[in-house]
Amino acid sequence: MKHRRMQAVTFGLWAALLSSSPVIAQEGRYLFLQTNDIREGQNAVLGYSRHDDGSMSPHPGNPFHTGGTGINNDTHGKLGPNDNDTPLVISADGRRLFTVNGHSNTVAVFDITRDGSLKHVPGSPFPSHGIAPNSLSVSGGTLLVSNRNGDYHQAEDLKGRSKASYCSFRIEATGSLRFVSKVEVEDGHKPTQVHVSQTNPAIAFGNDFEVDADFDGEGKRSFLAGDEASVKGQMHVFKIGPDSVLSELALVQLSETDASYKYKGMPGVPSMPLGLWTHPKLPLLYVGFVTRNNLGVFRYTADGGIQFRGSVPNSGQDICWVLPNKAGTRLYTVNNLPRPDLKQGAATVSTYDISGDHAERPVEIGAIEVPQPGGRFINNRNFEQPDSTAFQCTLSPDERFLYVISQRVNQTEENKSEAGNILHSFRLNNDGLPQLAHSRPLGPDGVDFRSRPQGVGAVDR
Questions:
Q1: Residue 127 above 90 pLDDT?
Q2: Is 72 inside a domain boundary?
Q3: How many Å apart are CA 165 and CA 146, to the nearest integer?
Q4: Fewest CB atoms less than 10 Å from the CB: which of 54, 119, 124, 430?
Q5: Which residues on adjacent β-strands are paired with residue 110?
Q6: Among 119, 311, 111, 86, CA closest to 205
Q7: pLDDT tens string 443-459
Q8: Whole-prediction pTM value?
Q9: At CA 450, angle to CA 446 and CA 454, rounded to 5?
Q10: d(Cα 316, Cα 302) in Å, to the nearest integer?
Q11: Taking 70 as the threshold, does the pLDDT of residue 89 lie above it?
């Protein structure tokens, strides 16, 4: 299928979608996101009913407080340390929700009731056994947690007292978490995601991504972990034992790919991973090579062996989050920044064909901009970007919609606007290509503009 032309969405259309006609509520179709509220003890999960036109209505019980505090990112234009995926996950049976409190170093666990309300399980929230938990993945009765150690408001830990880590917990019958094991990450690497294989529940993957460098010559914008520039990344292959013990099988460095101007990569820095996800039916791992604007493909074995199969170009800037559908025919990536050379004005979502032989050689068949109202600013890499940009995503259980969270990333003092935290829904057409259906500003729902909402999950109950 030929590459589809970029679908530009104007602000006028976006505003029209906000004022769409009334909809019929769909009982039992819910969506949840985390506010990542930086006010002490005010972090929360917001619940929504999902509707057939892509719109959402808030749950009357909102907010469901997590018992902790989100991670503050007033880093003067630096995108991190909110580099993460799956800070909120839902169990396979749709009965429990897990989410992180990044600044409080805890994990909250909720029972999801039939009416979509959330109820803490006994003992929630639970210590994450690390600093700044940021990603979760469930494997049967095991919960995996990555602790980034990237909260610069816990500076003593960030600058050497503690190490980042991957931890495993046993999920008790009540939903309570029992700590089992920890794998510490050496040399200052910072995890962004942990993910259990969809075809082998005894195998999991982690990726570390750290950019702590003063690209623009103004140290106040970067250098969170120390006074020296540090740009590095790697991947882990883990084994999950029957007793929920986590052990490392392999430590993987990314292969170098094209960093030329053609793909608008980042020459001078290594090839690094950000988002990752496994194929739902084949032993393949997809990885966003964020500094190369490439999508990488790895094949892995049951004993933890892993082989790089190659990479393909991505039309966006900073490919970050990766998500395939259940059929293994389409894969979506959220690309954090626009490509000026392609006349993009905002972050994009790319669609890849991964069916058949394309599973190991994906083909990008479409890209669509994520509407971002507001201004622009000069980021820490010394180029202009929108005040708000796209982060995590999820698919509805029936895979008719793709939901994307946008964050107000411009937390500089110059930004006086309170806009930018938005939940978008994209309807997937018969080819699996997304088309904007609805956009919901999250400020009126109680998301403080100084916070950056993160994590999104959908469930049918």
A1: yes
A2: yes
A3: 6
A4: 430
A5: 97, 120
A6: 86
A7: 999 999 999 999 999 99
A8: 0.92
A9: 70
A10: 33
A11: yes
